[in-house]
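Q: Structure for this?
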Amino acid sequence: MATRERPVARFAPGDRVTVLELGKAGHIRTPHYVRHHSGEVVQFCGHFLNPEDLSVGCTGGPVIPLYRVQFRMDDLWPGYDRHPGDVLVIEIYDHWLAPAATATH
Amino acid sequence: MSTHDHDHDHDHHEPLVVEDDQGNQEGQLLADALQSLLARKGLISAGEVMLEIQAIESPGLHLGAKIVARAWADPGFKARLLENGKNGAAELKIKVGEAQLVVVENTPAVHNVIVCTLCSCYPRSILGQPPSWYISKAYRARTVREPARVLEEFGLTLPAGVPIAVHDSNADMRFLVLPLRPEGTEGWSEDRLASLVTRDSMIGVAQPLPATAA
């Protein structure tokens, strides 16, 4: 495979991150319900082509890091009270994430 | 669906959605027109299209069941499968076509359930095509918000003390639930174990069949 630009993964499992609101239109894979929420990286999945580029025919890259990020359900949904251990895990591309401010939650 | 009574004056359509069980004429017409155009230009033949459809539809959930049964029977395999699902499947000569397979294990301490809120991402190469409810907007919207209620509607009532992990399969990973091994199956062959593994148990909306079902 040809060498592609390969940005370094900024996050590692255990890191606290916040999902950004990038205000982008089009084929984006970051649903609204996790935006502005903070969670914990549980897996670095590898580098993948950005679906926002792929959807408009740009297949040349760069590839970008993808992570699985875990959120507490009672953080995501007001009034959620089933079990404090209930979580949601979702894949988020690197550019949608920022380091979480400390002392959250 | 709009409730505005003036909308009938507009030439408006809901976006094409696969959950439309009424038969989606527009999508079908468009696909037919495209196929005949490509055939007339000599770019494809009808036979090639048929072969491609067969290739897409041939994987079935027996492949997923085989993976689960081996994991139940062989702790070493299970460990490797949880570490890397694609490599684990490859040990059984099962080719996972998707970028990566993440296997999530149900235990007495966590129940996993899979959903794709954005569309219908699904490990098709080992489970075949997703059921229509998996693609429905109701399942997609509600599973991330009230998973226990959704599971109850599937007939699965979890003990209140068991946490739920919902996996939104929204990007490049694909997910397989490794269900809890049914009680009373000690010493069973992998084939017999596989007969208890249902599609729904590998999505996480059901438990596998009980030992008495084999």
